[in-house]
Write a structure and sequence with these properties.
single chain; mainly alpha; Glutaredoxin; Glutathione S-transferase Yfyf (Class Pi), Chain A, domain 2; 2 domains; 3-stranded mixed beta sheet; 12 helices; 6% strand; globular; binds glutathione
């Protein structure tokens, strides 16, 4: 994947997507897929994981990724801001259901997966905790992710319970959808929720190296999630695999 530097990107118009380089950051992978599925062209701009990224902060007020910058509009960072932009700029089948109940459920579900305090937010607390156990507490002073993502050893104690509850909720929902004859998370349509689950479940069960050539160290850190939660229903991963087979592109490229 080709990345522009911040200086190069500042001189461009159109959609510039700031993305974590070298890691399949699930928020970034889902954002890339949402724009591609809606046929929206973008150029990628480099964010360096776990670093200060002062040039990005100066430009966008954000240190992490993704950040979507379209022409002179304000930076967009949250999943729904990104989905809304793709809906507005794009063409082809929508990723947002027309039905109001379905839409409300889709947004709530993505929030449980990708929102602040959602699945990966909680899983990340576990990974940051594992980092402290392996490398000592000084790591929290050097790595800005500890402060940015609210690391607190007290919160870590509650995370497993939250994650077990969410994974069993999602598995039950998928089984019900299957019984109703739908291969998707929301109603009978492929939506942004399927896209977000496909990439975020990559942290629960990482795609193999030939489909996902990520650094081994990060692969190991991500394994913290699966080893911390109770046994989960394989339907969660079957759903992910089906979405990749029918709608999404492999191998991942980041
Ligand atoms: N902007 C997203 C969150 C994005 C996010 O959490 N990105 C993390 C993924 S671990 C990231 O960029 N990590 C690398 C870093 O913090 O340097 C949102 O607010 O919904």
């Amino acid at each position: 994947m080709e990345y522009l530097t911040v200086e190069q990107a500042k001189k461009r118009q159109g959609l510039r997507l700031i993305l974590t380089r070298g890691i399949p950051n699930p928020w970034c992978e889902a954002a890339k897929a949402v724009f591609s599925l809606r046929n929206v062209d973008y150029v990628a701009v480099e964010q360096k994981p776990a670093q200060d990224n002062l040039d990005l902060v100066e430009w966008t007020r954000h240190r992490n990724a993704p950040v979507a910058l379209f022409d002179t509009e304000a930076p967009r960072v949250r999943y729904m801001e990104i989905v809304d932009l793709a809906e507005r700029l794009g063409t082809g089948p929508s990723l947002v259901p027309q039905d109001r109940d379905a839409r409300i459920f889709m947004i709530g579900l993505i929030n449980e997966i990708a929102g602040e305090c959602g699945m990966l937010w909680n899983a990340r607390l576990l990974m940051l905790d594992a980092g402290i156990k392996a490398r000592g507490p000084k790591i929290a002073e050097k790595d800005p992710m500890y402060a940015d993502y609210g690391y607190d050893s007290e919160k870590v104690k509650k995370v497993k319970h939250w994650l077990d509850g969410f994974l069993s909720y999602l598995a039950k929902h998928l089984s019900q959808q299957k019984k109703n004859g739908s291969p998707y998370l929301i109603g009978s349509e492929f939506t942004a929720a399927d896209v977000y689950w496909a990439y975020f479940s990559n942290v629960l069960e990482t795609l193999p190296p030939e489909q996902n050539p990520m650094p081994n160290g990060v692969r190991k850190a991500w394994a913290t999630l699966a080893t911390s939660v109770s046994a989960y229903d394989p339907i969660l991963i079957e759903h992910r695999d089906k979405m990749f087979k029918n709608h999404l592109i492999l191998p991942l490229s980041f």
